[in-house]
Amino acid sequence: MTAMPHGMPHQDMSHADVTRDVVKTLETPSRGYYMALFGAIAMFLIGAVTFVALLKEGLGLAGYQPPIFWSVYITTFVFWVGIGHAGTLISAILFLFRSPWRTAVYRSTEAMTVFAVMTAALFPIIHIGRQWIFYWLLPYPNQRFLWPNFKSPLVWDVFAISTYFTVSATFLVVGLIPDIAAVRDKVTGWRKKVYGSLSLGWTGADSQWRHYVKGYGFMAALAAPLVLSVHSVVSWDFAVSVIPGWHGTIFAPYFVAGAIYSGIGMVLTLVIPLRKVLKIEHMITDYHFDNLAKLTLLTGTILFYAYAMEYFIAWYSGNTFEQTTFWLRAFGPLWWSGWTMIICNAFVSQLLWFKKIRQNLTALFVISIFINIGMWFERYVIISSSLANDFIPFAWDRMNPTWADWGILIGSFGWFGMYFLLFAKTFPVVAIQEIKEMIPMPRRKKGGH
Questions:
Q1: How far is CA 230 from the centre of its chain?
Q2: At 142, is the secondary structure helix, strand, or coil?
């Protein structure tokens, strides 16, 4: 039998305990759950009302003005695409490496990925202003022979994100099947019928498991390259242009590291309170948070290096426009957003070198909030500072977000939170079957056969 890593939880649990405790999370919600759900719905309604106002009055309500357009919306779009990356990393890449600590948290990160990409997909539709013709964004044969510009990275975005969503959603659904069957066998009445139909006839037979494990492995291998490709494509939206501050070869790895960093930050923000609300502290333990914190530290350090290299390359290039852009990021009118980005992303994560902080959940939760804020501001700085100060000083201006920008931003968090909470109370948020695999098989007592 494979030796278990030091500190590995679940060793004192039986297979029956795992099923019982996870099924218990799907029973009557607690007051804390209702408060979180109503809070998310209220935030979503703020976004919905703002969207209706945009439909009625037009995009002029948002802070759209030359030379900066859809600034807060594209900032939030890139933010949510990035959030989705940790899910595939933890569920697919760590699965291929047989990392044992992923088992208790990967289901919630997969759900987070799907809902984050769903949230990101709203922003191009909000931005176009005439949402009833959103399908013009898609490449489809039409009578006017209009085709998207396939040389544009914006079209690459459509393919990258739709592929990522399809694979992530399939990965989540396939992984759920054995666990839904386990829930089916424990519930009664109408719930048994619903879970029975969703389990797709799963019986746990040997032949089913053999095909399932092979199929899951192939899907993990397919999903792993997407972690690198999707946010690389998103970064090229900026890097293929000649705008100062964007035209850099470092953008692809810089964006990928930042996306994983922000995704893990959101995992910590979600899972730390969720384990308490669902009373599964004994299943998601310090062991898991310690490893998540180490991954946060690794990606945060890569991001620290990328920030330093950006400033160094701007100085070393001798290009006046590049140097001016980065000078203004640190000491211009938006200096506060530039320093918020650097402090939250580069410095706060360095606290995770200390084991006491990695294993203190209150400290981890606070750090994760700083990471979320810092990563949103990273995209805000990249977009607003470069567009506000391009090659023509006569056209320079500042970004002025309005209530409509903030309303849509708040609504996006409500939209995401609402789906995530509904998922957590409808489906097993902890993978039953994979945790059982980590538990030693029961042995007969001494003297038996």
A1: 13
A2: coil
